[in-house]
């Protein structure tokens, strides 16, 4: 397997968020600050600040709920409507060739914010750089050997 060293990513990997990013954005009206791109009655869409690809949007209900089963029928319908609106806007602005759209429910399923349900919509283009290990047999290393060595070394007293 090939390796690409990306030590600048360690800040993101080790970053610990304080509170729920979706609840903060939902309660605030500072849409530019939180990169909220659309608000509806029950849900909103927000740009992912650590995107898998350019234009990566997340759609979330205003209420803090962790499972799709916890949404009301109105919230569920609105979530799908906002997904449709977001995809159309991405089509208009970025003209992607395809999309990955999905929901990770629970930490073990990969949900970065497991307590607040959200839908990912990731624009895709032929030849984009996602899924490096699967397609290109290449792993991105997010920390330099020097940093890792410094952290693992046991200092003599």
What does this structure look like?
The chain has 157 residues and is α+β, with helices and mostly antiparallel strands. It has a single domain (17-127), classed as HIT family, subunit A. It has 6 helices and 7 strands; from the N terminus they run βαααβββαββαβα. The strands form 2 sheets. It has a 5-stranded antiparallel β-sheet, sandwiched between helices. The longest helix has 21 residues, at 73-93. The chain is globular, with a radius of gyration of 18 Å. The N and C termini lie far apart (39 Å). Mean pLDDT is 78; it is low at 139-157.
- Provide the CATH topology: HIT family, subunit A
Helix content: 25-40%
CATH superfamily: HIT-like
In percent, how much strand structure appears in the residues?
15-25%
The CATH first-level class comes to: Alpha Beta
Count of individual helical segments: 6
What would the keywords be for this entry?
5-stranded antiparallel β-sheet, 157 residues, 32% helix, alpha+beta, 6 helices, two-stranded parallel sheet
Short description:
The chain is an alpha+beta fold and 157 residues long.
Topology:
Elements: E1 2-5, H1 10-14, H2 21-27, H3 31-34, E2 36-39, E3 43-47, E4 57-61, H4 73-93, E5 98-103, E6 119-124, H5 132-136, E7 138-141, H6 145-152
Parallel strand pairs: 1-7
Antiparallel strand pairs: 2-3, 3-4, 4-6, 5-6
């Amino acid at each position: 397997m090939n390796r690409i060293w990306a030590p600048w990513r360690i800040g993101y990997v080790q970053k610990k968020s304080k509170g729920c990013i979706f609840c903060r954005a939902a309660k605030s009206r500072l849409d530019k600050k939180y990169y909220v791109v659309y608000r509806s009655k029950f849900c909103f869409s927000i740009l992912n600040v650590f995107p898998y690809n350019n234009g990566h949007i997340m759609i979330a209900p205003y209420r803090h709920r962790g499972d799709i089963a916890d949404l009301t029928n109105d919230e569920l319908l609105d979530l799908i409507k906002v997904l449709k609106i977001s995809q159309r806007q991405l089509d208009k602005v970025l003209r992607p060739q395809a999309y990955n759209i999905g929901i990770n429910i629970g930490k073990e399923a990969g949900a970065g914010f497991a307590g607040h349900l959200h839908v990912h919509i990731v624009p895709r283009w032929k030849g984009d750089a996602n899924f490096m290990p699967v397609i290109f047999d290449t792993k991105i290393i997010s920390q330099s050997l020097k940093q890792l060595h410094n952290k693992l070394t046991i200092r003599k007293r």
